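queue> holo job accepted (iron/sulfur cluster)
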Amino acid sequence: MYAHILEERKSSIKSPARDSTPIRCEAASVAGAVSQRACVYCGARVVLNPVADAFHIVHGPIGCASYTWDIRGSLSSGPQLYRNSFSTDLQERDVVFGGAEKLASAIDEVMGVYAPRLIFVYATCIVGVIGDDVEAVCREAERKYGIRAVPVKAPGFSGNKSTGYRLACDALMRLLPPREKRGKREGVNILGDYNLAGEMWIIKSYMREIGIPVVSTFTGDATYERLLKAPSARLNVVQCAGSMLYLAERMEREYGIPWVKASFFGLEDTGTAIRQVADLAGSPAARRKAADFTRRESGRVARLVAPYHRRLAGKKAAIFVGGGFKAISLVRQFREMGMETVLVGTQTGRADEYEVLGKLVSPDTVILDDANPAELEKFMREKGADILVGGVKERPLAYKLGIAFCDHNHERKHALAGYEGVENFTREVNLSVNSPVWRYARG
Ligand code: SF4
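queue> job finished
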């Protein structure tokens, strides 16, 4: 199993049948292993970018600013400012003499042209090296313009994508009003959905269906104004636990808001999530509505997808996604579709999530944390995967190997959450796996 695997990587790759010791995870990437993980700045940007009326200024070289809305297309029902990319475009001269002045000028320019109420300033690798006082520049901008200017000190080298998630959550906490101003407690916040293809709207429609108001969304389709209302919610519903569990824990400590993890991927998990939210935040009427709604919708969708399941039965899936909570849902979803998961891995999964995965998958399934392309290729070939579910960085790998691919991340255009998502996902997997092209691509 471990042939051609770097010695230092072996403890991050497990198979339940072979090894019952815990997998190595939540750790720094092995130097030279060419990890699939994104950097700290990317982790922070993923979480904050969907705040649609904020300005996102990247203080660093222009290359960091290439990470934009265009490769992480979250949707907004209102403002579109977040779709632009702003950078201080640091050059050699700035690296020698400092870039703080350039940042202050960039903020002046933004205020002159757009006058936003909220600016996030991301300090990337080179700023971490030259040590510009980004905090001071932001403080001065707040004083001068009466806005919020929040520094996100996220040099790529200062950790991994999870570090960026935490920095983004800290930045969001800086915005929220103090506990004593939180008002009447009602409704829920949805945390960890980024409305990539309208999923936040689907989840909100379910809440409406069962009569539970949504106070605030983190951060899919968010605006500054709506974020400020978050402390008045009764419950935080956490969809992407990898990025937002930390925020939920901080809000529990600081505002006394309890949280629940709720995955809206797959028939089983969507139904459980809706009923759970109704149990924890709703009236007896909401609980009745949730039970009726989930029974009705899961029956309707099960009938719709049944013909596809016949075409997918026995096919083998490989999964490599950002967080462990999503990976767990996907393994369950493939099982609902009659498919076996032969490989499952994540960029930032936690020990408790890998434990659940270990119990959920077949004994021979390969489980990997923080994998690299060579490992994914080796195990997908060995296990005979028919499809890889991943993100933008995994797509070319699948196609080069002649394996079907389904984007469950940045680039997708079809919603994959909720009951609508079950239909879309099943159709897409069927189209991709059963496409005749693979006969030619594999030679
Ligand atoms: S690793 Fe550093 S230089 Fe590269 S994108 Fe991330 S912050 Fe920018």
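queue> Residues 39, 41, 60, 64, 124-125, 155-156 surround iron/sulfur cluster (CB under 6 Å).
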